[in-house]
Inverse folding.
């Protein structure tokens, strides 16, 4: 049996802003939609994006970067 999600889960969309308060609700909903309503994949993507943003800020502010 295959589960089809017609609209985003309100519970998931209410959960994401608590984890990512600096990201707009619209952006969180878009990431959730891109990941087909998969909360785990959405959280993983957002963590990666936050890491990339932090790395960029460190580079701009202090000339630090991670070559890994």
């Amino acid at each position: 049996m295959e589960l089809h999600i017609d609209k985003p889960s309100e519970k998931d969309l209410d959960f994401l802003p608590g984890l990512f308060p600096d990201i707009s609700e619209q952006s969180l909903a878009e990431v959730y939609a891109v990941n087909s309503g998969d909360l785990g994949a959405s959280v993983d993507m957002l963590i990666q994006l936050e890491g990339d943003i932090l790395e960029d800020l460190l580079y701009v502010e202090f000339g630090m970067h991670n070559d890994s």
Observations:
- Helices lie at 10-19, 25-34, 39-62.
- Residues 24-62 form one domain.
- The longest helix spans residues 39-62.
- Confidence is low (pLDDT under 50) at residues 1-6.
